[in-house]
Amino acid sequence: MEFETTSSWIWDGVHHHPHVFGCLMLTAALLGLSTSYFGGIGLSSFPYMCWDLGFFYKKRCEKKKPIRVYMDGCFDLMHYGHANALRQAKALGDELVVGVVSDEEIISNKGPPVLPMEERLALVSGLKWVDEVIANAPYAITEQFMKTLFNEHKIDYIIHGDDPCLLPDGTDAYALAKRARRYKQIKRTEGVSSTDIGPGPNAHVVYIDGAFDLFHAGHVEILRCARQLGDFLLVGIHTDQIVSEHRGKHYPIMHLHERSLSVLACRYVDEVIMGAPWEVSKDMITTFNISLVVHGTIAECNSMLAGIADPYAVPKSMGIFRILESPKRITTTSVAQRIVANHEAYMVVLSSSPFLICLSYMLVSWINAYPMRRRRYPSEFVIARGTGTMEKGLSWPCEDELKGLRKIVSAMAGRRPEEVRVVVSPYRICPLGAHIDHQGGIVSAMTINKGILLGFVPSGDAKVILRSGQFSGEVRISVDEVQYPRPIRKNSENHASNSQKLQEDCNWGNFARGAVYALQSRGFSITQGVIGYISGSEGFDSSGLSSSAAVGVAYLLALESANNLTIPPTENIEYDRVIENEYFGLRNGILDQSAILLSRHGCLTCMDCKTKEHKLIRPLKLQKFYKILVAFSGLRNALTNNPGYNCRVAECQQAARFLLKASGNENMEPYLCNVEPEAYEMYKGNLEPLLAKRAEHYFSENKRVIKGLEAWASGNLQEFGKLISASGLSSIQNYECGCVPLKQLYEILLRAPGVFGARFSGAGFRGCCVAFVDADFAEEAASFVREEYLKAQPELASQLNPNSAVIICEGDDSARVMQQK
């Protein structure tokens, strides 16, 4: 053994490089033959020398039989105690086989498990120390099962912790294994058993969950705040799969084990639950004797905006849920951005030294040769080819904008700047699904990194005091006064696309009144007002990018934050609809507010306006990086008062009535979403020409949306762009909207270099056009559009600021409330 230890490098060389070693030995042999070079070894000794080498080489090549060890358990709500036990078990052998006890066995011996078998199997299989998993293992080792382990699974030893494991009748569950002398014991990790987790039944246990990816100071501070609220801090850490589902496939950057160990190292944390479920259930609360569930305002997985089901519905209903203001405005995204920035600085240093460049390439080659050493970074932080710029998420608002806004509100309210909260309510674009949301169609949308910023502080009483960066005057209202609807028109003249004119017509402050009305009418007690300053991105006035919905959402979020209301985005979609449909009497759908409240950076938001369901689609791999061009026409007010456009919604409903009656469904509501595509194909020839165009736009646009979602999911921007352009053409030909300047701008964008597809935003009578463009050609395309539009419409183009006539944008996130660092 001593020989093998001190000379193992020799036999490694023989095994891995026999040709090299053979040459060396041949040289040595020849020396021995001719000169007795090796202390008297001559010709007669050479055969024995060769035999010895062959013996040792054969011994080295003999495959050692692996020691297989078995450990079982319930593994319900995986925590570090489980993980550490499996790590210790693996250290006692070469291969670890884990038995996961069945749901039925757990129920009969301990009570119902929190996690079903499928989820427990996934958690155990995901551990790095586990080689094989046996499902539905018995709670007690029976003689028959022990034979199966030894004979079929080739198990050498059965492992368990030093804590007693007794059956209901008081007998040892591992007695048979001990009698067979095939039992080994590991030391149980103190304090981390899901049976006795926590300090005792009378302790005040605080629970907080999240991804805790790239563990940073923001995590430490929120954990410190949470720990101060009780006697014992229990932290739930979501699985990699859950984090990916809620943040995108490139997350988490650190895997579950690394995140768990980081959290455990924090002095404020008493215990962790590895693989905690997304929703906090009543069983979980009672199992761990949880007294309070908390959630930060800045979270790794933003569960408050998940859009489908509130994960904290149960603790809220029990009155044990509390929002904690995150002390530090740090996120995994911001940390990753620092990593990228540091990498760029490092590359600058490298460029000055040929030696360092060579060393860097060697290091990269070594890392790429070992996949386990690589880390997954989000696509947002990949350097775009050929542009020299990075695709960074959440680039808006910048620190200067936030600082300036906080300074204004601080002066208005007499508060410190760090007390000022900011609502970020982005504008939206609708690549596909134009003009069909009011008919219950399928639509797509995403937000851009421009929009509404509302800085505010709670007023401390019922007063609301507001000023605007776009409009003059000061608005003063009281939230304890009952608000009543203020319809602007008696017809459908105002559509969402006329948002700027809408704000002027109805007095911009009435949107705040509408927000109060929406919350009051749905039974919320609003006692706290706000002092705030609202402003939109420069150059986007009258853009047709849903500024009215962005303003309404901003006021809703500010009032909810000031009154400590936690309202899911799906409900806020309804409340913003109340502002526009009920308070102002407009006839628009829910596309705008849905996009603003549900979108995620890097995703396309798909919404079924009939069922109100939505999903986020992130492309598997984009073939190219893209930017979003917003090209302005210079038209702030519609050039026409054509009553035909104002009747589009009614015309769609007329077409729906005819088709439903023809297909025997006249009792259904007159929306085109209630008409089966087969019925449309059968009876469309009988429609009046005008109604036929409206119906054709609806059904063809629905098809384009579905095809577009497939193209986006596969990363095919060329196909996605063609469908956007086709949507724009149908809006002109079948929905009959758009004016000459907007149509010209649309055609110019289609000719611009690198543009995948374009259409005008909104109705096309004012505002802008939007286009998806190859990121490498974004600047060139913008210059082309400016020059060509100046030729086509010199009078309108001259009214635009050359620096903001065409703006290059990126995707953004949903509306959110930001806290000071």
From TrEMBL:
The keyword Nucleotide-binding applies. The keyword Endoplasmic reticulum does not apply. The chain crosses the membrane at residues 345-367. GO terms for molecular function: ATP binding; ethanolamine-phosphate cytidylyltransferase activity; kinase activity; metal ion binding. Residues 70-197, 207-299 form the Cytidyltransferase-like domain. Its EC number is 2.7.7.14. Residues 541-599 form the GHMP kinase N-terminal domain. CDD domains: CCT, ECT. It holds the Pfam family GHMP_kinases_C. One of its GO terms (cellular component) is cytoplasm. One of its GO terms (biological process) is monosaccharide metabolic process. It comes from the Eukaryota. InterPro entries: CCT, Cyt_trans-like, Ect1/PCYT2, GHMP_kinase_C_dom, GHMP_kinase_C_sf, GHMP_kinase_N_dom, Ribosomal_Su5_D2-typ_SF, Ribsml_uS5_D2-typ_fold_subgr. Keywords: ATP-binding, Carbohydrate metabolism, Kinase, Lipid biosynthesis, Lipid metabolism, Magnesium, Membrane, Metal-binding, Nucleotide-binding, Nucleotidyltransferase, Phospholipid biosynthesis, Phospholipid metabolism, Transferase, Transmembrane, Transmembrane helix. It is an enzyme of class 2 (transferase). SUPFAM superfamilies: GHMP Kinase, C-terminal domain (SSF55060), Nucleotidylyl transferase (SSF52374), Ribosomal protein S5 domain 2-like (SSF54211). Residues 713-789 form the GHMP kinase C-terminal domain. Pathway: Lipid metabolism; Phospholipid metabolism; phosphatidylethanolamine biosynthesis; phosphatidylethanolamine from ethanolamine: step 2/3. PANTHER family: ETHANOLAMINE-PHOSPHATE CYTIDYLYLTRANSFERASE. Belongs to the cytidylyltransferase family. This is ethanolamine-phosphate cytidylyltransferase.
